[in-house]
Structure of DNA repair protein RecO:
Amino acid sequence: MRETVTLTGMVLLSAPSGDYDRRLVLLTRERGKITAFSHGARKQGNPLMAASRPFCFGNFSLYEGRNAYNLQSAQITNYFDGLSTDMEAACYGSYFLETAAYFAQENLDGTELLKLLYQSLRALLRPALPNRLVRRIFELKSMVINGEYTQDPPVPVSDSCHYAWEYVICSPSESLYKFCLKEEVLKEFESVVEKSRRYFVRHEFRSLEILETLTA
C-alpha cells in the first residue's frame, strides 16, 4: 500500500481532467505548490467533489503518483462560501489565487504565502475593509514574501502612506488587515503599490483583467 502524506493547504485551481476527474493545483504549507488529481470528483455524490473546488482550505491526504499526487481524502475547515454570494469579492479572491499560483514554488515551504492568502480571503469578507485596500496589501506583501520589493515606496509619498507601506512590509500576515486609509491616502497607496507591482511582477493575470473590467 502506498504511503500517504497529509498536507495543509488551499486549492488554487481546479480543472476538468478526463470524464470524471479533476486536476488540482494546491498551495501547501509543507511542500509549496503541488499538482494533484482528484479521481471521480466530477461524479455527483463523490466525497471528493466539495473538497476539489477553488478556495477550499484544510488538510489533504494524498499519495504520490509518478508525476503528481492523488487526492485520497480531505478535511476542509474553510470553504470561503461567502465569496460565492459576492461577485466582486469572488473576483478579487480569484486574482489572489492566481497570484499565489504564480509566486508559489514546488517543494519549497509555502507557509508565509499560504498564511497571507488565507488572511486576505478572510479580509474580503469583512464589510469594514475596502476591497481596494485588501488588494494592495495582498500585492505588496506577496512581493515581500517573494523577496522582490523596496524598503520605501518608489516615489515620495505622504507620511500616512509611508507608514502604511512600512506596516505591511514589517507585520505578520495575521496582523495586516487592521487599518483603513482615508480616500486620498488610499489612492496614493494604490498608486505606489501598482508602480512596484508593474516593476517586479512581469506577468499578465487573466483574473486581474476581469477584475479591473468589473470594477472600472
